[in-house]
Design a protein that fits this description.
The chain contains eleven helices and no strands. It has one domain (3-220). The longest helix is centred in the first third of the chain and has 21 residues, at 47-67. Helix content is 68%, strand content 0%. By secondary structure, it is mostly helical.
Length: 221
């Protein structure tokens, strides 16, 4: 799941460090795809650092439930088949595109149906103090936390997730994710064709997209 879908399950928490932990694995991946941390079993004397660890573990659990759910398997496969014909000359693998596309569409739907507040999500991140985050990163074995903080500052400043309200930005987000692996993943025509497919698919998901959140929520409880 993507940032806002993870946030959905703990949208009522008052612990900003737990919220950060629930999205930190993906934030680190965005900051530098070579960063690999495994703090899952660590225990720290600072309860705020432990909250980040607990949120991190929640992230892993939610992803495990999501990626094994029929909802994900069905819709990622369907999107793969729909998108494959329009990216035939692209280096991007259709199964990768289908996987990421369904996650981004879910984020879009959470925003556009008012299931979550993006501003409240960012308020949580803004409330986290850098020394606590740095302590977590060092404790988890990261040699150069400044790599993360440079990305994190821009992530908070840009409020980029607000753009997910527009389906065109979902295509752009897909492109940016793919650019981590392939320098020029899509032509302008491919992007336009992808947007048309994603818009149509999103409309079909509106009536029952919450079923996956309800399903995971039941497993978490």
């Amino acid at each position: 799941m993507n940032f806002l879908s993870h946030y959905y399950f703990d949208r009522d928490t008052t612990n900003c460090y737990f919220t950060l932990g629930t999205v930190l694995p993906d934030l680190l991946k965005n900051a530098d795809k070579t960063i690999i941390l495994h703090p899952e079993k660590l225990v720290h004397q600072n309860p705020q650092v432990n909250s980040i660890i607990q949120g991190w573990n929640k992230h892993l659990l939610v992803d495990r439930y999501f990626h094994s759910a029929d909802f994900f398997l069905t819709h990622s496969h369907t999107l793969k088949n729909l998108l494959a014909p329009v990216i035939t000359q692209s280096p991007v693998k259709p199964f990768f595109l289908g996987h990421i596309a369904i996650e981004l569409i879910l984020d879009n739907l959470l925003i556009t149906t008012n299931e979550i507040s993006v501003s409240q999500f960012y308020d949580h991140l803004d409330s986290c103090e850098e020394p606590v985050i740095r302590e977590f990163l060092l404790f988890a074995g990261m040699d150069n936390p400044d790599v993360f903080f440079r990305f994190f500052a821009e992530f908070k400043r840009s409020r980029y997730l607000n753009t997910y309200v527009n389906i065109e930005q979902i295509t752009y987000a897909l492109k940016r994710i793919c650019m981590r692996v392939w320098p020029n993943p899509f032509t302008p025509q491919q992007e336009a064709d992808m947007t048309t497919i994603l818009l149509t698919y999103r409309l079909g998901l509106i009536p029952n997209f919450m079923s996956i959140f309800n399903e995971i929520g039941e497993k978490l409880n």
